[in-house]
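Figure 2 data, in text form.
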Amino acid sequence: MSWAFLRDLLSGVNKYSTGIGRIWVAVVFIFRLLVYIVVAENIWKYEHDEFECNIKQPGCENVCFDHFFPISHIRLWALQLIMVSTPSLLVVFHVAYREKHHNQKLYKSPGQIDGGLLCTYLISLILKTVFEIVFLFLFYKLYNGFEIPRLVKCDMRPCPNTVDCYISKPTEKMIFLYFLVATSCLCIVLNLTELSYLVFKYSIKCYRKRYVKRHH
């Protein structure tokens, strides 16, 4: 697939983000999207062909591979990238709707957002954080932790007995799996930090308005 749409989407949202939000965009684009396209995709490209079991029983190797790798790491990572970036569409649609409805540019100053856009932006942050946590949980449950063993033992039918199966390049794959987990955790921290910052900033703004009205 082409990742140009995702790149353009992140670039479009970037001008309405805070400084923390721009860091998140940089992390997703440089440390996740580019790493996926340039490096990670090639590492898992032939994972099925390079999965070997010490038996020639027809169907045994395919069944064992499907059992230990129900979803490809690289496809799940791609789905994660798409899902954590999708909530940013809420911000794009909100701005497009408001500007089309009022037939003028409403958000001339980047980073200066009103109550409606602020609410949409906060919802997008919450959704991105939830998606990150859900996918980390999926990785952990599907693969029995964040590890890739060199040897797995399989006794699934039609294998006649317990057979040894070997995973290719386990160390290299594990390094990139740890990198995936680390970048996901970093994005979660950035999202929560930006969410806290915006809520705190909005609370201070509301408090000042109330303070001014009270004294007037």
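Caption note: The mean pLDDT is 78.
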